[in-house]
Amino acid sequence: MRYTIGQVAKKLGLTAHTLRYYDKEGLLPSVKKGSSGARIFNDEDIDWLIIVECLKGTGMQLKDIKKYIDLCQKGDSTLATRLELFKQQKRQLEEKLAQFQQYMEKINYKIAYYTEAVAKGSVDVCKQNKCLAAEKERLFGHK
Amino acid sequence: MRYTIGQVAKKLGLTAHTLRYYDKEGLLPSVKKGSSGARIFNDEDIDWLIIVECLKGTGMQLKDIKKYIDLCQKGDSTLATRLELFKQQKRQLEEKLAQFQQYMEKINYKIAYYTEAVAKGSVDVCKQNKCLAAEKERLFGHK
DNA sequence: TTTCCACTTAAAGTTCGCTCTATGTTTATG
DNA sequence: CATAAACATAGAGCGAACTTTAAGTGGAAA
Asked: Which of A34, A122, B22, B136 has its CA 20 to 30 A from that of A112?
């Protein structure tokens, strides 16, 4: 299956501008061009873009994604390095997940706090609520 | 308890520069200044900065955090709006968490793929592995 | 054929969140 | 009392990832 840049953009929720920018940055090494100069994407390019989005979404910078591409193009001698790269990325993702859990607890505290405040019509009442105070102590620690 | 900008920076893993920048942007409305002009932080300012980091970490831009501050300063009439803001932020965080789960699956696939490739010494072998192919199909979908 | 749409390049511009520089004042230490 | 550390302001600079602009090409529909 062949795709134009516009079709790929739509499929992946990016803009054609962004895809051209990625290409310029060397992130799309296997995308070919037709006689008119238009880029022609295939299914493997889509798969590749999904991995790019995955690495980007887990916090990798474009220049480091580029380095991964360079490893891929060097062939089988870089397999172990590439494996290590994904293991590292997994560790980073796990850290981010743990961080998000902590953010979630704080947001849940805030929701409980404001729910109480809205019910009572004032923030002052919340400050007397022992349960909320204990939760705040737990989440924000002793100073 | 009182803190200087340097102590707060250390406590929260930020720089004094960043804290001054936040102040300039109006993100630290309750920080006072001493006779020499030096900022004086207290425990509530620390709590507040923890919430700022939480909102920032869950994807809120500084200008939108500023809007939340403005709501806080308008008093109890904005309590419902503030509650809604945190509920919205919770939904966004849940979406991000779900997104991260999907990234994790793709990364796990890549780890399995490269583990196999390293064991066999070549990527070509992986493409014949039915199990990996099925997983790829599941994660990357039909095109 | 004309008109329109999607594509092209090259380069400048934008936004975000800092980060650094220059210059100066205050405070703590030996 | 001198010096060094930590604070201050104002404003310039930076890196990342786009985003937009300008000017043009190619191919299909009316």
From this structure: B22
Question: CB A83 to CB B114 under 8 A?
Answer: yes
**What is the nearest nucleotide to A6, using C1' and CA?**
C6
**Count of residues for chain A?**
143
End-to-end CA distance of chain B: 61
Query: What are the sequence ranges of the domains in chain B?
Result: 1-74, 92-143
Which residue of chain B comes nearest to A72, CA vs CA?
B123
In chain A, residues with a C-beta closer than 8 Å to the C-beta of B69 are none
How does pLDDT run across A111-123, given as a tens digit for each residue? 999 999 999 999 9
Alpha-carbon distance of A106 to B51, in angstroms, equals 8
Q: Which residues of B touch A57 (CB under 8 A)?
A: 99-100, 103
A28, with CB counted inside 10 A (0-12, 13-18, 19+), is buried
Q: Find the CB nearest B54 among A89, A106, A136.
A: A106
Of B64, B69, B71, B5, nearest to B32 by C-alpha is B5
Nucleotides of C under 7 A from a protein CB: 6-9, 16-21, 25-27
Hey, which residues does B40 pair with through a beta bridge?
B32
For residue A121, the distance in angstroms to the closest alpha carbon of chain B comes to 7
In words, the CATH class of domain B1-74 is mainly alpha
Q: What is the pLDDT of residues B27-70, one digit of tens each?
A: 999 999 999 999 999 999 999 999 999 999 999 999 999 999 99
Tokens coding A135: 């939760």
Distance from the Cα of A137 to chain B's closest Cα (Å) equals 10
